[in-house]
UniProtKB/TrEMBL annotation:
PANTHER family: HALOACID DEHALOGENASE-LIKE HYDROLASE. It comes from the Eukaryota. It comes from Haematococcus lacustris (Green alga). This is Pyrimidine 5-nucleotidase. Coiled coil: none annotated.
Length: 141
């Protein structure tokens, strides 16, 4: 596999784009997932009226069966206002000041001359805040 310019050897496909997951891939900060998990549990209890003692088991079950707790809630028939969810579970719950610029990662990303796209289970606002804090906003399409 080749990345970037030039021609690939015969029989090897040239990579045309790079897809990178945001959270726990571009940065590692154990406080952020812990904050999100606490906020998810609070949301489920407060906004979906799930008894507090059932929330941890439910979140784990939904996460493992559906990939994310949110996907599991939706698949289980809960009506979720996505903007409200992301506001409470990400924007208000996360201390974004924990994220610092990463010049080494920035240089690496800038050296890869193919389009790069960021993926996240969160919303665009969360992605933009994280990328801004990491100094990587202009590295992605």
């Amino acid at each position: 596999m080749t990345i970037g310019g030039g021609t690939a050897p015969k029989g090897v496909r040239r990579v045309k784009a790079l897809l990178i997951d945001l959270d726990d891939t571009l940065y590692r900060c154990h406080q952020i997932p812990a904050s999100c998990r606490s906020a998810i549990e609070a949301y489920i209890h407060q906004h979906l009226s799930v008894p507090l003692d059932q929330v941890p088991q439910l979140t784990s079950q939904l996460y493992f069966s559906h990939g994310t707790t949110l996907a599991g809630l939706v698949a289980s028939g809960y009506k979720i206002d996505y903007d409200h969810w992301h506001q409470l579970v990400h924007h208000e719950a996360i201390d974004y000041s924990l994220l610092k610029p990463d010049p080494v990662l920035r240089n690496l990303l800038c050296s890869i001359d193919i389009p790069k796209f960021i993926l996240t289970n969160a919303d665009r606002k969360h992605a933009q805040i994280c990328l801004d804090r990491l100094g990587l906003s202009d590295c992605f399409k």
